[in-house]
Amino acid sequence: MKLLKKLGISLALCACTVPLYAADSASNRSSQFIRFGTKAIALHGLYWRSSPIEVEFPGKNITIGVAGGSNTTEVVSSSSYSYSTGWTYTYKTVAASTSEVNIRYYPGNSFNWLLGYGKYKIELKDWPSEDSTTYDIAYEATQVNFGLGNEWTFDFGMYIGADWLMTGSKLSDSYTATLVSGTETTASKNWVEGDTSSIGAAGGVAIFRIGFGF
After folding, report:
1. Distance CA 166, CA 82 (A)
2. Alpha-carbon distance 176 to 194, whole Å?
3. What mean pLDDT is predicted for residues 106-135?
4. SS3 state at 83
5. Torsions phi, psi of 114, nearest 5?
6. Which helix (H) or strand (E) holds 192?
7. What integer best gives the mean pLDDT of the chain?
8. Closest CA relative to residue 167, chosen from 147, 141, 143
9. Would you say residue 151 lies in a domain?
10. What is the pTM of this model?
11. Is the dihedral of CA 196, 141, 122, 207 positive or negative?
12. 178 lies in which domain range?
C-alpha cells in the first residue's frame, strides 16, 4: 500500500512538473536545427502498418519535414482444428509503405495546422480468390493531407505531438492484380477486379508523434 501511495505521488508530481519544461515550445523549437521521431502510435491504418519515422527541420512558426516507413505483417486468413495436431493456421501477407512531405504552421505556442503530400501503398501477397487461384494485389494512392493538433517541445530536446484529426483529398490512385498461381477463370477475374472510385483518402485521429531534436 505504501509503495502504491509513493507511486501515485510520483506520477502526480510528474504530471504537474513535466508541462513546465514545454511551457515555451515555440522558443524550444527555434533553438533546434533538426529532429528525429516516429508517428507509429496512431489510429491510422497506414501508419499502424508501416510504422513511419520522421525527420524535420523545426522553427518557431513553421516546421518542414519528411516521413516514411514500410513494414510487412502476416494476418490469419483461415484456421482448422484436428485432435491429432491441434490448431492449424493459414496466413496472408500484407505489406504497407508510407512516404510524406509535411509543413506545419504554428499560430501559437503548441497548436499547429498541417499541410502535406502523401503517397501510400498496400500490397496483398498470394491472396487466394474464390477458386484455387492466387493473386498479388497492390493499391497505391497519392493525396493532399490536412491536419490539426498540438505539439510540445521540451527544454531538454524531446518533443511530443498529437494530430487530433488528419484527413485528405485523393489526387490519384492505381490498382493492379497479378496472377501468381492457378488458372484464371471468369469467376476469379471478376472477384479480383477492383473499382477504386469508392475508396476515399487515408486519414486518422489521435496520431501521436514522439522524438528528439538537436
Report:
1. 46
2. 8
3. 90
4. coil
5. -115, 135
6. helix 186-192
7. 86
8. 147
9. yes
10. 0.80
11. negative
12. 25-213
* CA–CA distance, 38 with 58 (Å, rounded to integer): 15
Q: b/e map of 99-119 (b: 16 or more CB within 10 Å)?
A: bbebebebeebbebebebebb
Number of H helices, E strands in the chain: 4, 8
* Residues 69 and 81: beta-carbon distance below 8 Å: no
pLDDT digits over 34-77, tens only? 999 998 788 888 898 899 999 999 999 999 999 999 999 888 77
What SS3 class is residue 188? helix
Per the structure block, which three cell numbers stand in for 119? 503517397
User: Is the residue at 130 inside a domain?
Assistant: yes
Q: For residue 205, what is the enclosing H or E element?
A: strand 204-213
- How far is residue 106 CA from its own chain's centroid? 22
CATH number at residue 204: 2.40.160
